[in-house]
Amino acid sequence: MNKLTLSLSVVVLAGSLQWASAGDITGKVTLKGTPPPEITIPYDDTCSKLHPAIPTTRRYVVGKDNGLANVFVYISKGLEGKKFTAPTEVVELDQIGCNYNPYVFGVMVGQPVRIKNSDPLMHNIHALPTADGNTEFNFAETAQGDVNDTKWTDSIKAPEVMVKLKCDVHNWMYAYAGVQAHPFFAVTDADGNFKIANVPAGSYTLTAYHLKVHGINPGAAQDITVADSPVTANFTVEVPPPQ
Ligand SMILES: [Cu+2]
């Protein structure tokens, strides 16, 4: 195989990985309007050493063509009464550089969640769910490398958008989890794109929820039908007026 053939094959392979198939919902969430500037977080000396960039809040993370990151997109209607097996893939919530990573994540009820401390100092993980069936938890991870695989699944047993987590040692540390009773959800990437795969054929409502855009409101919704071809569902959401 000469060099040209090889590079063409690589391009074809890379392209095929992005093809959508029947049962896939793909789309982009676009932000309309100018968000307020992020606030610089006053890290203490210890945390500053762990986080060389100047840390800011992550209220509106906007990428290419105003794509909005950290939007939780999920099927909010149409799957009632159906049972799904939780993915075995472990969702990892890391405490690193005195912040949570990821900031927003999705998880199915019963899916394993590993809470990890990558920093050489103490953090605590304080979950503040509000849905019936979910219970608050709060524990410390005192040393670098500490992990916990049980607290989340022992405590979070019901769908909730979103479960708030905070660290009581560092008052800027927050993370948010979208919890569903089915595996058909995604969080938008840095450019606002999302993909939900292998959705069974049917008619659904798809909801896109962003913490700052939607707050206590339910999010933007649209009706979709999944049949024998991939579905594209784009959303445009607007920066709310200042309060
Ligand atoms: Cu902390």
Structure, briefly:
This protein has four helices and 17 strands.
Summary keywords:
single chain; 243 residues; mainly beta; Immunoglobulin-like; 2 domains; five-stranded mixed beta sheet; four-stranded mixed beta sheet; 36% strand; disordered N terminus; binds copper (II) ion
The number of distinct β-strands equals 17
- Give the amount of beta strand, in percent: 35-45%
Q: Which runs of at least 5 residues are low in confidence (pLDDT < 50)?
A: 1-17
Overall geometric form: globular
Alpha-carbon distance between the termini? 63 Å
Average of per-residue pLDDT values = 92
Rounded Rg: 19 Å
Number of domains: 2
Q: So what's the CATH class of the largest domain?
A: Mainly Beta
**What percent of the residues sit in helical stretches (DSSP H or I)?**
10-25%
The fourth-level CATH homologous superfamily of the largest domain is Carboxypeptidase-like, regulatory domain
Indicate the structural class: mainly beta
Question: What can you see in these coordinates?
Answer:
The protein is 12% helix and 36% strand. The protein has 243 residues and is mostly beta strands. The chain has two domains: 22-84 and 182-238, Carboxypeptidase-like, regulatory domain (Immunoglobulin-like); 88-178, Sandwich (Immunoglobulin-like), CATH 2.60.40. The strands form four sheets. It has a five-stranded mixed sheet. The model is unreliable at 1-17 (pLDDT under 50). Copper (II) ion binds at residues 123, 167, 169-170, 173. Copper (II) ion (CU) is lined by residues 123, 167, 169-170, 173.
